[in-house]
Amino acid sequence: MPFSHWSAPVADAPVDATVRLPGSKSMTNRALILAALADGPALVRRPLRSRDTLLMAQALRALGVAVDEDGADWRVTPGALSGPARVDVGLAGTVMRFLPPVAALADGDVAIDGDPRARERPMGPMITALRALGAEIDDGGRGALPFTVRGGGAVEGGPVTIDASGSSQLVSGLLLAAPRFEKGVHVRHEGPPVPSAPHLAMTVRMLREAGAEVEIGADEWRVAPGPVRGRDWDIEPDLSNAAQFLGAALVTGGRVTVPDWPAETTQPGDALRDLLARMGAQVSSGPDGLTVRGTGAFQGLEADLRDVGELTPVLAALAALASSPSRLTGIAHLRGHETDRLAALVRELNALGGDARELPDGLEIRPRPLHGGVFHTYDDHRMVMAAAVLGLAVPGVRVENPATVGKTLPEFTDLWTAMVRPA
What we know:
Distance between the termini: 34 Å
Radius of gyration: 21 Å
Structural class: alpha/beta
Strand order of the largest sheet: 2-15-17-16
Number of strands: 23
Strand content: 15-25%
Low-confidence stretches: none
Number of helices: 12
Shape: globular
Mean pLDDT: 95
Largest sheet: 4 strands, mixed
């Protein structure tokens, strides 16, 4: 059955909107893991409800944790972790990397699988690390999904060396469960630099807020064994999902405000303030939130995006519409995301008349007049968002499978249409 297509709305005038975003996926799934391992109940306030977070909640329920609706919140009551259980990770990196260390603490087998593309995403380092820490995993020698964690009710823990250059989630997954391991965990990274440092900072901060003892050094993290405190979590708006909305102000010469932008945060999306300003936006913070104003013209961007790779698709779309070339580097790891994002962006931008090429670790984009056409999205929510940005200025952009935004922002097309074509 062919995918449906969505005609991305063209902006006939500068946008002028306030866009209230749902909660951070990254914070929600970390809070769910910490609440599941805690010594008492927790309330996760204003969580994101999307495919990725619903899969995490269901995975924890399968292991014996109660995750109940409480108005707009989730109430999490820890239980004895047990199998047999089956877990579907979908295409969620946070679920496929955060859940296996928790499953190793269960008493019984936990079978873990996901979407076809999930079987291609880097999991070998996690499987090897868990075995080194004392877990038993049957992966048929694949080093990838699907596999079964044969939980024995406890994990010894201790020192482990891992190459986390493919994803910082490999380190975060080990750290989040580490307080419950008998010896804690001392993770050392060996290999090319770990991407997405802000997400590691988020993991460390939330562990400490839950009472865990965490020490960090150069490419190493140590979490001591001990209880995880049951506490309530307030989830910030998802700042990475602000990228396309704030970018719309740049493209149209308009104004977009995102309320409740935190004054201090570990979210990678906070880098948008600097990145969009470097492209020519006027960026300001105030009691109403973060506001971006476009001036009617904006230039390209030269930036190392290693720490904020998830912003790449929208920044690449902006670059294709800018007045000068862009060079986005430090993002070779995006080849192992929901799709090979570098190849996909080059293919789709060039199919609309653009001039993009892959670099060993990034993209080079030279602006050219673009035309309409089908923008394929490869089951990748960020590709839908990039296509929407292009559609603001390019008539006839038809976006394949817009429903894939359900991964992190199910209401995206409604929010986008309301911003571009207010009632």
